[in-house]
Amino acid sequence: MIEVENLGKDVPMQGNGGVLTILHEISFAVTAGEAIAVVGASGSGKSTLLALLAGLDTPSRGRVRLDGEEISALDEDARAELRGRLLGFVFQSFQLLPALTALENAALPLELMARRDSREQARSMLARVGLAARLDHYPRQLSGGEQQRVALARAFAVQPKLLLADEPTGNLDAATGKDIIDLMFAMNREAGTTLVLVTHDETLAARCGRRLRLAAGRLADPAIGG
Question: In angstroms, rounded to a whole number, what is the distance separating the alpha carbons of residues 200 and 209?
Answer without folding.
Answer: 16
